[in-house]
Amino acid sequence: MAGLTLRHIEKTVGRTTILRDVSLEAAEGEFVVLLGPSGCGKSTLLRIIAGLESPTRGSVRIGNRPVDRLPPQERDIAMVFQHYALYPHLTVRANLAFGLTMRKEAPSVIESRIAETATLLDIHDLLDRKPRELSGGQRQRVAMGRAIVRKPRLFLFDEPLSNLDARLRASMRVELQKLHQCLGTTTVYVTHDQVEAMTLGQTIVVMNHGGIQQIGAPGRIYHEPANPFVAGFIGNPPMNLFEGSCRRRGRELDFRAGALTLTMQAPVQDTDAAASGHATLGLRPEDIALAPPGPGQSAFEGVIDVIENLGGDHLVHLVVGGQRVMVRTAPDAARRAGDVVTASWSTNALHLFINRQRVPVRPQGP
Ligand SMILES: Nc1ncnc2c1ncn2[C@@H]1O[C@H](COP(=O)(O)OP(=O)(O)O)[C@@H](O)[C@H]1O
Ligand SMILES: [Mg+2]
Fold first, then answer.
1. Considering only CA atoms, which of 119, 158, 113, 114 is closest in space to residue 140?
2. Which residues line ligand 1 (CB under 6 A)?
């Protein structure tokens, strides 16, 4: 059964298009992450699902029920925001009870739901405190408790961890994952943080400029980005992207990028899909080695500009034919800025986009 279905959602305000033709489906119990840069329309989409805003066009179903005409309180959803929005004058217990009291649940039901939620979130000790007596992490936990206690059909999270420090964010990520394993409630989670998206999402929806760029499992989005935007957005440090042109030669392709006279042959699986034209070539910093090319590998020479120490690894910034290339590699104490080095990679690590569409590349045969 579907947990959530969005069909052709559009939102325009005046002459500005905020969302364009957004369609997606979440299975019952699925954890879906909306990922994209600030301003791409994530919050607007979440607010449309919640019923806090109406779309210009398109429809929303929660479960198998169309909710387009229902106000937020009748959509059976619970939302958690970046700003916790707890009632400051009420205790944690009263904050948790609030929504249930409004729904006129029996006191015994409210009591047992609060107990259950407090156990799940480990907040028994906090129940009689006021929000000002809590740390940021504890407040966010209570805010989640307020969502959980209502047993909604759908959870909506809008960057709930972005106000927390890095360490707390990391531990809350794990807790959110466990919580979802426990409750199995369909969830839509908005973030601009790719680490959160990768660790939490069963499905990631990458957005840019109000439109969907790619929908897929985290591994798919990382290994097979659909276009140069997704390729450059996912991964840290980001993928090296070279803008150039492609020319087909029989069943093979030549790629050239400006001063970087990187000519390579990339046999394509479907030669019809690969036309000559504008092309982007992507190589992840972790897929390049500072070593001579082995069998089936290609290489270029570059000059080391800067070496960044990442702790375990080094991030080596190269200048190659006027372009910057980042390489993530094991430390080598002998390496210095100014050194000329050989960088090599395997063809199957290449990401090739012709006219902004992914073209599958397979390794060259013997
Ligand atoms: N009511 C509105 N009127 C005009 N522009 C809006 C309105 N709401 C949002 N926007 C604009 O729509 C874009 C998307 O906003 P938002 O959904 O908040 O993005 P995100 O959550 O991805 O950062 C932004 O450029 C924002 O300024
Ligand atoms: Mg937002």
1. 158
2. 13, 16, 18, 36, 38-44
CB of 176 closer than 8 Å to CB of 21: no
pTM of the model: 0.92
Q: How many domains does the chain have?
A: 2
Strand order in the sheet with 77-80: 77-80, 154-158, 186-191, 31-35, 203-208, 211-216
| Closest ligand 1 atom to Cα of 190 | 21
User: Which candidate, 194, 202, 282, places its Cα nearest to that of 241?
Assistant: 282
The CA 38 to ligand 2 mean position distance, Å, reads 7
Q: Are residues 224 and 245 in the same domain?
A: no
Query: What is the per-residue pLDDT for 201?
Result: 97
Are 169 and 146 found together in one domain? yes
**Span 117-140, pLDDT tens digits:** 999 888 999 999 999 999 988 998
Q: Is residue 290 part of a domain?
A: yes
Kindly state whether residue 186 falls inside one of the protein's structural domains.
yes
Q: Which residue's alpha carbon is at the smallest distance from atom 11 of ligand 1?
A: 18
